[in-house]
Amino acid sequence: MKLPSTPAVIRIFRALAIAEAFSWAALLVGMFLKWVTRTTELGVEIAGPIHGAFFIGYGVAALSLWGMQRWPFRVALFAGLSAVFPFATVWFERWAGRQGYLTFPAAGDASQPAQEPAGETAGV
Questions:
Q1: Which has the closest alpha carbon to 59: 95, 13, 97?
Q2: From its phi and psi, is residue 45 left (phi > 0), alpha (psi between -120 and 50) or beta?
Q3: Quick one: 97 exposed, middle or buried, by C-beta within 10 A (0-12, 13-18, 19+)?
Q4: Nearest to residue 101, comparing CAs of 87, 118, 86, 123?
Q5: What pLDDT, on a 0 to 100 scale, did the predictor assign at position 1?
Q6: Residue 74, C-beta contacts closer than 8 angstroms, at least 6 positions apart
């Protein structure tokens, strides 16, 4: 079985981070309609499973990138925690991109691991 390339997993991760945030919003609206206005449970019934699927997908993509990109444990921990708080996956995805955790080596350097981002010390 051939695994997806690092650039493909990074693209999937970025898309799932945004989709997970939108599904959080839909679920929050659904919960408002169910518990506050008491008008319908349809929002929770639809948005709940969708959000669950995006949540699991985001977690799997984050774990994959942890191994593929050799993220420090704290970065992987922040990726996982960001899925628990509404809209935090978008913040994490932007932060990780700026810090260099969502980059990949050039085509000629595929055998080299991703460079440690500037300002980071080894072993931290």
A1: 13
A2: alpha
A3: middle
A4: 118
A5: 82
A6: 124
CA 50, CA 36: separation in Å to the nearest integer? 21
The CB density around residue 61, as the number of other CB atoms within 10 Å, is: 22
Other Cβ atoms less than 10 A from the Cβ of 95: the count is: 16
Residue with tokens 């349809």: 42
Q: How far apart are CA 20 and CA 52, in angstroms?
A: 9
* Cβ contacts of 59 within 8 Å, gap of 6 or more: 80, 83
Q: What is the pLDDT of residues 61-84, one digit of tens each?
A: 999 999 999 999 999 999 999 999
Structure tokens at 27: 């679920």
**Are the C-beta atoms of 81 and 88 separated by less than 8 Å?**
yes
Percent of the chain with pLDDT over 90: 81
Query: 68 and 82 in contact (C-beta within 8 Å)?
Result: no
Q: From CA 116, how far away is CA 103, in angstroms rounded? A: 11
CB 81 within 8 A of CB 39: no
